[in-house]
Specification:
Shape: globular
Order of helices and strands: EHHEEEHEEEEHEHHEHEEEHHHHH
Strand order of the largest sheet: 1-10-9-8-2-5-7-6
Distance between the termini: 16 Å
Number of domains: 2
Structural class: alpha/beta
Helix content: 25-40%
Radius of gyration: 21 Å
CATH topology of the largest domain: Rossmann fold
Number of strands: 13
Oligomer: single chain
CATH superfamily of the largest domain: Uncharacterised protein PF07075, DUF1343
Number of helices: 12
Low-confidence stretches: 1-28
Mean pLDDT: 90
């Protein structure tokens, strides 16, 4: 395990039997993994007498208790909460506008960092001494929590605030794959030159942002390393298949969806339904125009997908659902673009397959993948085109790992 000498990294030391027992209740597969948030003796002392802001959502748990509730119970002064995409309580649909509010349960003001206001302003932080970041990520570039992390990290440094990052395992942290983003296609669904699946925890990703100087010029110049504290997980390794105790967003309700997401989220940039509005989003996908002898489903509006493609229409396509083990075996430790290639091949209106808003290119991180698909390039040839970029990224990634890596 590598620890950066240029960062103040906090090693996990809280190993009481109570903590281990609580961790096991989440899932027997998670064994004795202890998240950063669960190691309260490591960071609660830094918060006493401070004005604290928390960036959190429904995944920010200490065992079964929300981080915010635990902090309040310990008489820590939380002056505000910041919320990401889907909101602080995690109930908003993808892309849904989330307004500022007052949390009904705690009475604490909640500021949304999604939409036009993605980065805390000096005014937001004028009454804050310490910032906390604790959100469960899924390890996929276009899942927006790492973009939120980047803006939050910049704001902390630019405004000379202490930032505590409470690390959590990456459920897709056991491989690295996909096209590396060309920064010409930078957006909130991909801000840095990393592949679709980057194999790093939030803490490791923050290390990389700092070490590679990928933050704003102001943040890079003002960085005081002792002000960035990362509480690492205990007993986590990258080959661990960590089962999430709480869905990280409304359409990733099952581990199988989380495993399939890197392969099937590409459909968001096409006319193909990615299964939103069903009980298996990102596991089933299709369109009314595809052959009727394929698997059929009918997406309908629900709380997690209030508006999306093909609602109330019979779609024909594929069913990639199954047990966690079956899905992992099918994916074989890599992004499967065969679904995308087959859907394009069978779709009758090739000119309308990709949405006209260039969102597919933002997801891919380049304008090459779309052309490769249109030109009928074989899957193996497409994957070969990713290799040079992946090799460069993997060499960068190794410098910032905090946990034992998988065997490549």
């Amino acid at each position: 395990m590598k620890i950066l000498t240029t960062l103040f990294i906090l090693c996990s030391v809280f190993t009481s039997s109570h903590t281990r027992a609580q961790a096991k209740t989440v899932s027997p597969k998670n064994n004795t993994i202890v998240t950063g948030a669960e190691q309260t003796s490591m960071y609660f002392p830094w918060l006493k007498g401070k004005r604290v802001a928390v960036f959190a959502n429904q995944t920010s748990l200490i065992h079964t208790t929300h981080l915010v509730d635990s902090l309040i119970h310990s008489n820590i002064n939380i002056v505000k909460i910041f919320g990401p995409e889907h909101g602080f309580r995690g109930k908003a649909a993808a892309g849904e506008l989330v307004n500022n509010e007052v949390d009904v349960k705690t009475g604490i003001p909640v500021i949304s960092l999604y939409g036009d206001h993605k980065k805390p302003t000096p005014s937001d932080l004028s009454d804050v001494d310490v910032m906390i970041f604790d959100i469960q990520d899924v390890g996929v570039r276009f899942y927006t929590f790492i973009s939120s992390l980047e803006y939050y990290l910049e704001a902390a440094i630019e405004n000379n605030k202490t930032l505590i990052i409470l690390d959590r395992p990456n459920p897709n942290g056991f491989y690295v794959d996909g096209p590396v983003l060309d920064v010409k296609f930078k957006s909130f669904v991909g801000m840095q030159p990393v592949p679709v699946v980057y194999g790093m925890t939030i803490g490791e990703y923050a290390n990389m942002l700092l070490g590679e100087k990928w933050l704003s010029d102001e943040a890079n110049q003002k960085l005081i390393r002792k002000n960035i504290k990362i509480v690492t997980c205990k007993e986590y390794k990258h080959q661990t298949k960590y089962l999430l105790p709480v869905p990280p967003s409304p359409n990733l309700k099952e581990m199988s969806s989380i495993y399939m997401y890197p392969s099937t989220c590409f459909f968001e940039g096409t006319l193909i339904s990615e299964g939103r509005g069903t009980d298996k989003p990102f596991q089933i996908f299709g369109h009314p125009s595809l052959p009727s002898n394929l698997f059929s489903f009918t997406p309908k509006a629900n709380d997690g997908a209030k508006s999306s493609k093909c609602f109330n229409q019979i779609c024909f396509g594929w069913n990639g659902s199954g047990s966690n083990a079956a899905v992992l075996k099918k994916l074989n430790g890599k992004i499967q673009i065969k679904y995308l290639l087959e859907a394009y091949k069978l779709f009758p209106g090739k000119d309308s397959f990709f949405l006209k808003n260039n969102f597919f290119d933002k997801l891919a991180g380049n304008d090459i993948l779309m052309e490769q698909i249109k030109n009928g390039l074989a899957e193996n040839d497409i994957r070969k085109s990713w290799k040079p970029g992946l090799a460069v990224f993997k060499s960068i990634r190794k410098k910032y790992l905090l946990y034992t890596d998988f065997k490549d």
